[in-house]
Amino acid sequence: MKINRIDHIAVTVKDVEKTLDFYTRVLGMEHEMCDGVQHALRFGHQKINLHTYKGEFQPAAQCPEYGSQDLCFIVDDDIEDVKADIESKGVEIVEGIIDQEGALGLMKSIYFRDPDGNLIELAEYCK
Asked: Is 121 known to be catalytic?
């Protein structure tokens, strides 16, 4: 067997409206409803399913917890421009711009937190 890629992940959130605002307004993801009941955030060829309480959809992680995720997203834009854009939206940068080793090599990263405290990393691969 050979794994090809990640299709989606599920994140448990305290306040779905705050989460939707953050990921759509700050990160430009698109909100969609799956089967009319589950909120999801779509970007590229992936999505994040939102669980609005622990264990909302089964099967689920054994111990879902708010704010326990470290999520890294690759950007196409210059990381300096991305940092300025994120800061202009009132988001506090936790760290960066720093060098980081990604799945495909060296990248430049910034870090900040979403409304639940999940660590968000935005990164640009070095050319």
From this structure: yes
Sheet hosting strand 46-51, strand order edge to edge: 8-12, 46-51, 38-43, 30-34
Q: Is 27 helix (H, G, I), strand (E, B) or coil?
A: coil
Mean pLDDT along residues 57-74: 90
Q: What distance in Å separates the CA atoms of residue 127 and residue 124, rounded to the nearest whole number?
A: 9
pLDDT category, 88, cuts 50, 70, 90?
Answer: very high
How far CA 25 is from CA of 33, 56, 72, in Å, comes to 17, 25, 18
CB neighbours (10 Å) of residue 62?
6
Q: Which helix (H) or strand (E) holds 92?
A: none
In degrees rounded to 5, what are phi and psi of residue 45?
Answer: -105, 20
Rounded to whole angstroms, the maximal C-alpha distance in the chain is: 45
pTM of the model: 0.93
The pLDDT of residue 35 is 84
Instruction: Say if CB 50 and CB 40 are below 8 A apart.
Output: yes
Among 65, 92, 121, 124, the active-site one is 121
What single letter denotes the amino acid at residue 120? I
